[in-house]
Amino acid sequence: MFFASGSGSNFQAVVDAIENNEIDAVITGLISDNEHAGALRRAENHNIEVRVIKNFGTGEATEELLSVLRNWSPDLIILAGFLKKIPDEITRLYHNKIINIHPSLLPKYGGKGFYGKHVHQAVLEAGDKTSGCTVHYVNEEYDEGKIIMQKTVDVLPDDTPETLAARVLAEEHILLPNVIRQLLNQTK
Ligand code: GRF
């Protein structure tokens, strides 16, 4: 199952990989904190169950979340562009079952405030020659769980945050399905 707040292109990459028989899995559902998330439309297009939980972080929302998780009983929980913090209760309950994709080479440019364009802007300002993306386990701290796999992307001299973001995102779409395939095979 997935959590997504935004456009959902990473979610789509996994849906496509499943439909192309590159991953043997069923997506039980998608949770979003944002009723306008493009990810919701993508899920509906593929008949994947969706749930919008708006007051994320409140006790009531955590209860709702726990009940959805009990129903869906996922083997793997994937955060793909999800902007809210997963409650500690849930990260503890689903230890080593929640993964996140982040558009930098963690531990660089992770943590609160480092999302979307802010990450790529910081990479360019620092003059880094490489950036990339990371899939990692989710624990109680933002972007600090154990790293599973990374992919490096060269930073080009004339890159803007937008051009760098686009090249990193293209690699995310390859990295995320690869990691999911690997993790599911390990648990089979
Ligand atoms: C990606 O860059 C991902 O790494 C980050 O948020 C973005 C989500 O993009 N966590 P999308 O919604 O999958 O298109």
Describe the structure in your own words.
This protein has 188 residues and is α/β, with parallel strands linked by helices. It has a single domain (2-187), classed as Formyl transferase, N-terminal domain (Rossmann fold), CATH 3.40.50. The chain is 40% helix and 17% strand. The protein has six helices and seven strands. The protein has helices at 9-19, 38-45, 59-72, 88-93, 117-126, 161-187, and strands at 2-3, 30-32, 50-52, 77-79, 98-102, 130-137, 147-154. It has a seven-stranded mixed beta sheet with strand order 3-2-1-4-5-6-7, with helices on one face. The protein starts with a strand and ends with a helix. Bound molecules: 5-O-phosphono-beta-D-ribofuranosylamine (GRF). Residues 4, 6-11, 80-81, 101-103, 169, 172 line the site of 5-O-phosphono-beta-D-ribofuranosylamine (GRF).
Overview in brief:
This protein is α/β, with parallel strands linked by helices and 188 residues long. The chain has helices at residues 9-19, 38-45, 59-72, 88-93, 117-126, 161-187; strands at 2-3, 30-32, 50-52, 77-79, 98-102, 130-137, 147-154.
Radius of gyration over C-alpha positions, nearest whole angstrom: 16 Å
Mean pLDDT: 95
What's the number of helices?
Answer: 6
> So what's the CATH class?
Alpha Beta
Weakly predicted, low-confidence segments? none
